[in-house]
Design a protein that fits this description.
With 658 residues, this protein is mainly alpha-helical. The protein is globular and about 100 Å long. Strands 7-8-10-9 form a four-stranded mixed beta sheet, covered by helices on one side. A two-stranded parallel sheet has the order 1-2. It has a two-stranded antiparallel sheet with strand order 3-4. Helix 8 packs across helix 9 and helix 9 packs antiparallel against helix 10. The protein is built from 24 helices and ten strands. The longest helix is centred in the middle third of the chain and has 23 residues.
C-alpha cells in the first residue's frame, strides 16, 4: 500500500501536527525501498514519424516493434519497368510525398524542388542515347550540393543537439517528414546525424551528441565535469566474444544470431591470441567480408576472372614473416577463389517461386546473416568490406528498376540486351505504322543484329549464363525469334533484377531489420549507403596527410623517415593501401569522412633497435587499438618500402605481442 501522510511525516524527520511519531523501522523501509516510476508522453502517433510512425525512435535491437512489417518490406516493392518505358515520365508523374501540417505553408515550393530534383536525376532521358556520352548517362545534370538548404540544415542540427528533445523523443514532426520525403534538402552529414539520433538508441544518440559538443567547444574545468557526466549517461555496455579463426564464418553467423540485436557494443577476440579491443574487432568485419566473397558459397552474380598475361609472383620467404602462422595462412588464402564482380556484389539469381521456395536454406541463412552483419557494423560504427552493386542499394530503397540498371551490374550483358531491345522496338514501330501485310512482314523479317537474323542467334528462354534457369515453363525448348524478342528481354531483365533475387534480398532486409529498421536508410542515395557501410575511399596526398597524422617518441613532421613514409604511402596502389590500412587499423577502409575522422589519430613513433643491431633488420609493428605505427628509422626510402610491403603482406592474420 502507498505510504500515508503520517508515514511520510515520520520519514521526513518529525511528526505532523497532531500526529504521533512512527517507529524508526517504518521510516527505514520507506526510504530504503526503490520505487520504479514508469511514464511516457501521451502521443497517438510517434512525433518523430511524421505520420504512421515512420520516424519513430526505437532502441537499438527493437527490430520491427513499432512499424510492423512495413519496416522490413518496401511500401512499393522494387519492380522492373517494362522495356521501352521512359523512367523520366514515371518519376515526374508520381505524386510528391505528403507533408505534415507544419510544412503545408511551404508545400508548393517543396513540391517544385522535388520535381526539379527528379528532373535533375533523369535529365539524360530527354535526349537520345546517341546524344549523351555513356559516361554521363547515370550522372545528374547538377551536382547534389546545389540542393541542400543551409537554413533548414542549421535548424535541424539545433533540434538534434537539444538534449531534452533527444531524451524525450519530442522532435517536431517536420524533422522526420522532410528528411524522409525531401532528403536532398539536407547535407549527407546532417542526414547521417539524424539517423544516429533517431534509429540507434538513446545511449548512442547521447554519445554522438557528446562527441559533437566536445569537437565544437574547447575543454575547460567546468565543462570537464559536464563531459564526464554526459559520457556516463551515454555509456554503452560491451559484449566481448571469442571466436576461432579456423571457423570464422560459422562463428560469425552464430555471434550475429545471439548479439546483433543487442544494444551492447560488440568486441571480438580470437582464441590463442592476446589482442583485444578495436583492432581485432575491425579485422573481424574485414575477414568475414572476405569469406563472404568466396565463389564456393554461390551467393553472388559474377563474371569470369580475366586471364592475366603477367607471370605469377614468386611466393615471399616465409621466414621473414613477423607473425608465426600468418604466412602459411595467407598462402592458403591464395588458393581460395573469390568472385569477380567488378561492378559490385549482387545476389546470384536462383529460379524460385513467389514464396521463395527453390532457394537453398543455406543461401537464405547467409543473406539474413549479411543483413545483420551490415546493420550491426553500422550501429557500432564499424565498417564492412562488401561493395554492393548500385542495383542492390536501389532494391533496399524500393526504387524502380529497369534495363538501364543492368549497366551497373553487367555492362556487356546490358549492351547485348540493349541492342536486342532496339530490334524489338523497331518491330513494334513497324507493326504500328501499318501497311500491306506482306510488306510489313518482309520489313520485320529483315531486322537483324549485325547481319544475323534473331532466330539464328542460338538464344532460348533461359537466363544467359544460367542454363537451368528457365524464364518461363519449358523455356529451354522455346527459341527466341524476332516476334518474341521483346518478351525475352523483359523476362531476362526481371529475372536478374527482381524475380531471381527476391528471396535473397528479402532475407537481407529481414536480417538488417533485426538490428534496426531498414526503412531508416530511405533518406540516403545508393552511393551514400556504400559510404555508410564500406567507408571512404581516398588517395593520400602528402601535403594533406601530414596535417592529419601525429608524430611522437623520436619523430617529428620534419623527420627524414616521415618524409620517406609519406612518399611510400603515396606510391602504393589501391590494393596495397587497403592492406596498409588493415595492417595499421584492422580495417581496409577509412571511416566516413576519411583520414580526418580516424579515431584515435594515426600516430607514427620511432621503433628503437637493440644495441648493435641495424634498424633495417626490423619490420614495422603496430598497435591497432590505438592506430599506433612503430616505424624503425630505415637507412633509405627503398629499404622502408620493402620492409613495409613485407609487413603488410605477411604480418596479418594474428594479434600477438611484439
Amino acid at each position: 500500500p502507498s505510504p500515508t501522510a503520517r508515514e511520510l511525516a515520520a520519514a521526513a524527520g518529525g511528526p505532523a501536527a497532531g500526529m504521533p511519531s512512527l517507529p524508526a523501522s517504518l521510516s527505514q523501509r520507506l526510504w530504503g525501498a526503490v520505487y520504479t516510476l514508469t511514464y511516457r508522453l501521451p502521443m497517438e502517433v510517434d512525433e518523430l514519424g511524421g505520420g504512421g510512425g515512420r520516424g519513430s525512435v526505437e532502441p537499438a535491437g527493437s527490430g520491427r516493434s513499432s512499424e510492423g512489417e512495413e519496416g522490413v518490406r518496401c511500401a512499393v516493392e522494387a519492380h522492373v519497368l517494362p522495356p521501352g518505358t521512359d523512367p523520366l515520365l514515371g518519376a515526374l508523374g508520381a505524386a510528391a510525398p505528403p507533408l505534415c501540417a507544419e510544412s503545408e505553408g511551404a508545400g508548393a515550393v517543396l513540391k517544385l524542388l522535388w520535381f526539379l530534383h527528379r528532373l535533375n536525376e533523369h535529365w539524360a532521358r530527354l535526349y537520345s542515347t546517341a546524344e549523351v556520352p555513356e559516361a554521363q548517362r547515370g550522372a545528374p545534370a547538377l551536382p547534389p550540393a546545389v540542393f541542400p538548404n543551409s537554413k533548414l540544415n542549421a535548424k535541424l542540427m539545433r533540434q538534434l543537439q537539444d538534449p531534452l528533445a533527444l531524451c524525450s523523443r519530442s522532435f517536431p514532426s517536420w524533422c522526420a517528414t522532410l528528411v524522409n520525403a525531401y532528403p536532398f534538402l539536407f547535407s549527407f552529414g546532417t542526414r547521417r546525424l539524424f539517423l544516429h539520433s533517431t534509429a540507434f538508441g538513446l545511449s548512442r544518440a547521447l554519445q554522438r551528441l557528446h562527441a559533437h559538443a566536445h569537437e565544437a567547444s574547447s575543454s575547460s574545468a567546468s565543462s570537464g565535469a559536464e563531459s564526464r557526466l554526459e559520457s556516463r549517461l551515454g555509456r554503452l555496455p560491451r559484449q566481448k566474444v571469442r571466436i576461432s579463426r579456423s571457423r570464422l564464418l560459422d562463428s560469425a553467423v552464430r555471434v550475429m544470431e545471439l548479439y546483433a540485436a543487442q544494444p551492447a557494443l560488440l568486441e571480438v577476440e580470437y582464441f590463442g591470441e592476446v589482442g583485444t579491443g578495436l583492432g581485432p574487432t575491425l579485422e573481424f568485419y574485414a575477414l568475414v567480408s572476405h569469406d563472404l566473397r568466396k565463389a564456393e558459397l554461390d551467393l553472388w552474380y559474377h563474371e569470369e576472372q580475366p586471364i592475366s598475361d603477367e607471370p605469377p609472383a614468386a611466393a615471399p620467404d616465409s621466414t621473414e614473416a613477423p607473425l608465426g602462422g600468418a604466412a602459411a595462412e595467407r598462402a592458403r588464402d591464395k588458393h581460395e577463389k573469390l568472385v569477380h564482380a567488378p561492378c559490385g556484389l549482387f545476389p546470384r539469381p536462383v529460379a524460385q517461386e513467389a514464396d521463395g521456395s527453390g532457394v537453398p536454406k543455406r543461401t537464405i541463412q547467409l543473406f539474413t546473416f549479411i543483413g545483420r552483419l551490415c546493420a550491426k557494423a553500422m550501429l557500432d560504427g564499424r565498417l564492412v568490406d562488401l561493395c554492393f552493386a548500385p542495383p542492390f542499394y536501389r532494391h533496399l530503397l524500393c526504387c524502380e528498376l529497369g534495363l538501364e540498371d543492368l549497366h551497373d551490374l553487367s555492362p556487356q550483358l546490358f549492351r547485348s540486351l540493349h541492342q536486342l531491345q532496339a530490334l524489338a522496338s523497331e518491330r513494334s514501330r513497324l507493326l504500328r505504322a501499318g501497311g500491306k501485310p506482306a510488306e510489313v512482314a518482309a520489313a520485320v523479317a529483315s531486322l537483324t543484329l549485325h547481319g544475323c537474323p534473331v532466330d539464328q542467334l542460338g538464344l532460348d528462354f533461359t537466363l544467359p549464363g544460367f542454363p537451368d534457369f528457365e524464364l518461363k515453363p519449358g523455356g529451354a525448348d522455346v527459341d527466341v525469334t524476332i516476334d518474341n524478342l521483346g518478351e525475352y528481354v523483359r523476362l531476362v531483365t526481371d529475372a536478374l533484377l527482381v524475380g531471381g533475387v527476391r528471396a535473397q534480398l528479402a532475407a537481407f532486409r529481414q536480417g538488417f531489420s533485426d538490428v534496426f529498421l531498414v526503412s531508416r536508410l530511405a533518406p540516403f542515395t545508393p552511393s551514400e549507403l556504400d559510404v555508410l557501410l564500406n567507408g571512404a575511399r581516398e588517395r593520400w596526398d602528402k601535403a594533406t596527410v601530414i596535417e592529419l597524422l601525429k608524430f611522437d617518441h623520436g619523430y617529428t613532421r620534419s623527420s627524414a623517415a616521415i618524409s620517406h613514409l609519406l612518399d611510400v604511402i603515396a606510391d602504393l596502389t589501391d590494393a596495397q593501401l587497403a592492406s596498409f590500412l588493415k595492417f595499421v587499423t584492422g580495417s581496409p577502409r577509412l571511416p566516413v569522412g576519411g583520414l580526418a575522422r580516424l579515431s584515435p589519430r594515426l600516430t607514427i613513433v620511432q621503433k628503437k633497435p637493440e644495441s648493435g643491431v641495424s634498424p633495417d633488420a626490423y619490420l614495422p609493428s603496430v598497435m591497432t587499438c590505438a592506430n599506433y605505427l612503430k616505424l624503425p628509422d630505415y637507412s633509405s626510402k627503398e629499404v622502408m618500402r620493402e620492409r613495409i610491403l613485407t609487413a603488410i603482406n605477411e604480418g596479418q592474420g594474428a594479434f600477438l605481442l611484439s
